[in-house]
Amino acid sequence: MPDWTYHPLRGAAAAVLGRRRSQRTALRLLASIGSRPAGARLIARGFGHRHPPERLAGEIAGVPVTVRLGISVPPSLARETVRAMPPLGAGVVEVAPVSAADVETVREAAADRSIPLVVRACDPEAEAALKPYVDGFTSGDDPHVVHVSDPSVTAAAAALEEPGAVVLARPGVLIEAGPGWFARVTEAATPTAPAPRLRDVGRDPRRWPAWWWALLVGLGMTGAGLGAAAITLGPVLLWYDRDYLGMTVHQLHAANHHLVHFLQHDRITMAGTMASIGALYTGLAVGGIRRGWPWAREVYLLSGAIGFPTLFYFLATGFVEPLHTATTLVLFPMFVAAVRRTPHTPRWHLTPEGPEPERRRALTGQLLLIVTGAGLFVGGAVISVVGLTGVFVPTDLTFLGTSAEALETLNPRLVPFVAHDRAGLGGALMSAAVAIILLSAWGWRRGEAWVFWTLTAAASAGYLPAVVVHTTIHYTDFIHLAPVYFGIAITGTGLLLARPYLCAKAPTGPKN
After folding, report:
1. Which of 163, 447, 493, 494 is most deeply buried (CB count within 10 A of its CB)?
2. What is the mean pLDDT of residues 106-129?
3. Which alpha helices (DSSP H) does 35-145 contain, by range?
């Protein structure tokens, strides 16, 4: 489990199962999933863990390790630890102390392992019995092996600065800090370079960096959302809309005096969602991709991979919107340029650790934001399905005071026209939701204020227009708007809990 479920939920788990049993259950669950190749990849990618830098590679007791960071556990925890730790970012597992009575337990733990396993034996008999089964043996007086009981990330990263030093955490470290401790230490020990500035971009588009292309897409999405809002609040229908329907705004209003307002409410909500995506992409470009965070590119890629294909919803609705198509054709090549290569040089700057209660509150906020994103994704999927099938929900028809059959009788093209707007809104919501989920899951670090402001801007752009337009046109059915109200409450609570942590500033030294 990630830190954002471990800390907020472990109190409840301990109350139900007991403290020790809940800890062992969590370890066994991770071991069960991590022992399978697909499960290990799922944990590693889902937690946002990436390959450690080469400078953190080394050896322990003559055994090569990809990262000089691991855990030291007693034999009773060896089997689950060996299977659970690799996807969490550990580079080695030490089992200590091991006596002759523990030999069989360690043998079982060593079977089918995917991580170096070393042992600190209590006697020559145990060492001889385990020599064919483990990778090496440590001693209690090795100055290069540092055992830590303090969950301080800063202290562990500082210990790794010593050439050849291997840091092994006691089990209590992970119990106190959470499963993300290895990744946090690895990031803190990663050497970084200064982030590029605007003046470094240059004028030749062929040499523009990926983050600049990503920024242009974000600004383009924001501009497109504002443009869509301006059209909806102004003429409502453009020439191609009128040509497709064979009706003007006045004729639609005469046929059903709620119909124009209904079209506006769908399109304003869509415009707000587009602006929300623009805010997310802008933040990911400037705060994430520009600073070399590899996960930021993946968030951007996965969100766009869902959003751009929704253009092809017209195959089901039968209505091709020229402006939507033109915007997609302009932004998609920029999107490809932004994701065509991964950032190579880490350019982030981590803020030192702060009070642990502050981090715990932020983890609760992180969980709430991820739950919000998951809810938005489900809502977007439902809206897409409704838009591509029935088009209207019961509260829509109550507001319109009519039926879908009556609207089809009025104009056979009216329902496909509404379906295009509705399905497109669903696709945009899913695209935004993926970005919110992954940015919240992978970007939560102390001092990363851009994450807070990106999510705040996205939430404001998404929720505010939806509430205002529904209130303005008097479409205020509580059941219809309940998901919006619930989302605002959870998002606001999560951001308030996380703000002190995400917006923390690094301490400044005394002036000369």
Report:
1. 494
2. 92
3. 37-46, 78-84, 103-110, 124-130
Q: Is the pLDDT of residue 510 over 60?
A: no
Task: Express as a percent the part of the chain with pLDDT over 90.
Answer: 71
Could you report the per-residue pLDDT of 87-101, keeping only the tens digit for each?
888 999 999 999 999
Distance of CA 437 to the CA centre of its chain: 4
**Predicted confidence (pLDDT) at residue 149 exceeds the cutoff of 90:** yes
| Matching residue, tokens 């929720």 | 463
Place of tokens 């483990």: 134
Alpha helices in 234-321, H assignment, sequence order: 239-245, 249-255, 259-283, 294-307, 314-317
d(CA 281, CA 276): 9
Whether 92 and 190 have beta carbons less than 8 Å apart is answered as no
At position 408, the amino acid (one-letter code) is E
The CA distance from 492 to 394, in Å, is 29
Q: Could you tell me the strand order of the sheet in which 136-137 lies?
A: 136-137, 117-121, 92-98, 69-73, 166-169, 145-148
d(C-alpha 280, C-alpha 284), whole Å: 6
Whole-number Å distance between alpha carbons of 200 and 203: 9
Separation between Cα atoms, residue 186 and residue 389, nearest integer Å: 49
Locate 352 and state its tokens: 């030192």
- Cα gap 178→4, rounded to integer Å: 9
SS3 134: coil
| Measured distance CA(181)–CA(183) in Å, rounded | 6
Token pair of 22 as six digits:
């809940």
Cβ neighbors of 426 (< 8 A, separation 6 or more) are: 310, 379, 380, 381, 382, 383, 384, 385, 386, 387
Q: What pLDDT is stored for residue 511 in this prediction?
A: 44
Cα(291)–Cα(347) distance, rounded to whole angstroms? 4
Distance CA 378, CA 372 (A): 10
Cα–Cα distance, 266 to 397 (Å, whole number): 14
CA torsion angle 403 404 406 407 (round to 10): 120
CA distance 456 to 453: 5
- Position 49 scores a pLDDT of 66
The closest alpha carbon to 151, from 97, 114, 188, belongs to 188
To the nearest 10°, report the CA torsion of 259, 260, 264, 265.
-30
